[in-house]
Amino acid sequence: MKAVIIIPARYKSSRFPGKPLAKIAGKSMIRRVYERAALTGNDVYVATDDERIESEVKSFGGNVVMTSVFHNSGTERCAEALMKITGNYSVAVNVQGDEPFIDPDQIKKVIRLLEKNKQAHISTLIKRIKNKEEIFDPNIPKVVFDSKGYALYFSRSTIPYVRGEEKENWFEKTEFYKHIGIYGYRREVLFEITTLDPTGAEQAESLEQLRWLQHGYRIKTAVTESETISVDVPEDVEKAEGFLRAGGLDANS
């Protein structure tokens, strides 16, 4: 199964314009994401709509594909990029462009899920929540899944609901899992899901994976123990550099 890793990256961001070009200990964030993804041994491409990002990727010898400015999601951008990339790839992996320290093993795991589970259309990762406050944080999507690891539902609300218990006791009564935003798609599935009509649950929760579930696509999950640092706002750059200073990774890697 031949896989390609695609990193969607746009310049415009309401919370952090120019985020892919932000320097973290001397390297642009998009370069850090690219180099971590390349450690998997798979081909890597950045999909962007901005010439500044294109120029940066070319400056360090990376592969880059220019895409439309009108995409509504990284998924749509990945689909256009896959159409333009030369190569007989059967799987595409969508790696977030704001994960400068992503674990290459996480990417490999997403690919293996599709290799080993022929019924799966899409693969993704989840992590058990170990911080009590996170189960009530609407910015952290939660997930419930069946006995075989297929996702049943994603929500910004706390799921599962613990009936008959005060909320302060929920964390001790059951396990909660959060979604890690990396996806593997079978080639034909990636093209299909970008043509689907939005669904009510997706619009209510603002989670595109609910559209796929409601249209019958099966999302296989696997648990990861790796915790990465996302850069969402300018203040997060200092957190990322602090991670490097603390020895989280070699500052030059």
How many β-strand runs?
Answer: 11
Uncertain regions spanning at least 5 consecutive residues: none
As a percent range, the share of strand residues is 15-25%
Biggest sheet character: 9 strands, mixed
CATH A-level architecture of the largest domain: Alpha-Beta Complex
Tally of separate helices? 9
Q: Quick one: CATH superfamily of the largest domain?
A: Spore Coat Polysaccharide Biosynthesis Protein SpsA, Chain A
CATH class of the largest domain: Alpha Beta
Task: State the order of secondary-structure elements, H for helix, E for strand.
Answer: EEEHEHEHEHEEEHEHHHEH
Overall pLDDT level: 94
Distance between the termini: 28 Å
Query: From the helix content, strand content and strand pairing, which structural class follows?
Result: alpha/beta
Report the C-alpha radius of gyration, rounded. Answer: 18 Å
Please tell me what the overall shape is.
globular
Q: Under CATH, the topology of the largest domain is which?
A: Spore Coat Polysaccharide Biosynthesis Protein SpsA, Chain A
Oligomer: single chain
